[in-house]
Design a protein that fits this description.
The chain is α/β, with parallel strands linked by helices. The protein folds into 2 domains: 67 residues, Arc Repressor Mutant, subunit A; 254 residues, Aspartate Aminotransferase, domain 2 (3-Layer(aba) Sandwich). The protein has 14 helices and 9 strands. The strands form 2 sheets. Strands 3-9-8-7-6-4-5 form a 7-stranded mixed beta sheet, with helices on both faces. Strands 1-2 form a two-stranded antiparallel ribbon. Helix 5 runs parallel beside helix 13. The protein is globular. It starts with a helix and ends with a helix.
Length: 362
């Protein structure tokens, strides 16, 4: 097992122990040296694993004292008139300052890929795309999500659209205007504008230090919750591990659905991708939305939405007649960038750049 896999394995084992209650909230984890001896790995491997757990809010480091469990997955319900409130400890999060830029996607690689697609697909690039998107792109995205985000999805769960805003509009048309939509406050202003343009009634939910405030979440009457768990714009708030699970508890208890807007989390400075709410969902209550305008460039007017299996028929019935607005050529180029590995190499390059920037600010 290589070095990277070793520390990820330690991270996963300790995380499961924390979630399972072996290490209770507030308790101290074994020292790095003790844990290294117990697991038969190096102290550096344990250090990397503990850093990941701290970044995601499972543990919190205390100078000269060690690492303490901050994850609290106890039942949280704050109703109107409730006198009891439970406080969730927040873990330390690595945050990249907004002035840290990203390396632009290579023009030469993009141009070379366009030429290769034109040569290989010939006149097929002029054909009309299937309504949910080209199978080549949906398959490439499904494979990529499995490799990089641990999301086990099939191409049939994926819908391609011309930007995230287009997909928000499809969501409104599918769920309808008879329910209330909850949106983070503050949030990217176009989210609320698109929902309002579709005739939806909005409830703006105040953000706290690690996500929507619990009293706002549980007292709200929304049936659909639109959240950006990683670095919500413009606040920069990132949801903790406990908050992500609280969102899922809300969806189960309130019979609601979650739109997970995963804008730019691929550029996390962490050594591993951010944990998605979609990957934690076991009841088909999360719709995952992401876009290529951030990872490739604004000229790539293409986004995608991953539906849970139980919502595929509902979306097909409500918006299945829409034509895919993304040109076939553009879809095939993005598919080729993903399948060739150029897309992930670019993301890894930017993540290394951001990680250096974050470390320089410490």
């Amino acid at each position: 097992m290589d070095k990277q896999k070793r520390y990820l394995k330690v991270y996963e084992d300790v995380r499961e122990d924390i979630i399972g209650g072996r290490y209770e909230t507030g308790s101290k984890l074994p020292s790095k040296r003790v844990m290294a001896e117990a697991m038969g790995v190096s102290v550096i491997t344990i250090e990397h694993a503990y850093e990941l757990l701290a970044e995601e809010g499972y543990i919190i480091p205390k100078e000269k004292s060690g690492y303490f469990v901050s994850f609290d997955d106890s039942e949280i319900y704050i109703g109107k008139g409730s006198a009891e409130k439970k406080t969730v400890m927040r873990g330390n999060k690595i945050s990249v300052a907004k002035n840290i830029g990203e390396a632009a996607f290579s023009y030469s690689i993009y141009a070379k890929t366009v030429r290769r697609v034109l040569s290989e697909y010939d006149s097929r690039v002029m054909e009309k795309s299937p309504k949910t998107g080209m199978n080549e792109l949906r398959s490439a995205i499904a494979n990529y999500l499995g490799r990089s985000r641990r999301l086990e999805v099939s191409p049939e769960q994926i819908i391609i659209g011309a930007g995230a805003e287009y997909l928000y509009g499809l969501i409104v048309q599918t769920f309808g205007r008879d329910i209330i939509y909850g949106v983070e406050s503050p949030s990217y202003q176009k989210i609320a504008k698109v929902y309002e343009a579709g005739g939806a009634e909005l409830l703006m939910l105040k953000l706290g230090s690690d996500g929507v405030e619990s009293d706002e979440l549980w007292n709200g009457k929304m049936k659909l919750l639109h959240i950006t768990p990683y670095r919500s714009f413009p606040s920069g708030v990132t949801a903790s591990a406990a908050k992500k699970r609280e969102y899922l508890k809300w969806s189960r208890k309130k019979d609601g659905y979650i739109i997970e807007d995963d804008f730019e989390s691929e550029f996390t400075p962490s050594r591993k991708p951010e944990e998605t709410i979609f990957s934690l969902d076991e009841e088909g209550r999360v719709i995952y939305v992401n876009t290529f305008t951030r990872t490739i460039g604004s000229y790539a007017r293409c986004a995608y939405m991953v539906l849970p299996m139980n919502l595929i028929s509902a979306f097909s019935e409500k918006i299945g007649f829409y034509e895919c607005p993304v040109p076939t050529l553009d879809q095939l180029v993005i598919a080729e960038l993903i399948e060739s590995g150029d897309f992930e190499r670019h993301i890894n390059k930017v993540r290394r750049y951001n990680r250096k920037g974050a470390q320089s600010q410490k």
